[in-house]
Input
Amino acid sequence: QVQPVEAGGGLVQAGGSLRLSCAFSGGTFGTPAMGWFRQAPGNEYEFVAGITWNGVRTEYGDSVEGRFVISRDNDENTVFLQMDSLQPEDTAVYYCAARNYRGGRVLTVQTAYDYWGRGTQVTVSS
Output
């Protein structure tokens, strides 16, 4: 079964940076649309960032705009999330999601994605 695999989470002090990666492979994945979501304890899933299959378009959640950058390397079947100026409120489990979609829109809702990773914990200390 196709499943994205996240890596790169950890503990960082406020103001620091982390870079998450998500490897996707298997089946007829090809070059899917990708997204990052996060979930803090007791909260709903929150859209963090999304990128089209070709990397042309990106979108960000309001709370991370200007601090996070999503990118992809289709030769390596990997998507990245560079997170700078991290704050304690960024603490959450971060999930990578994929969908075999080659349209021009960035997918920003949880239900738009078919495949999900198991998540990686990001903890930001104050």
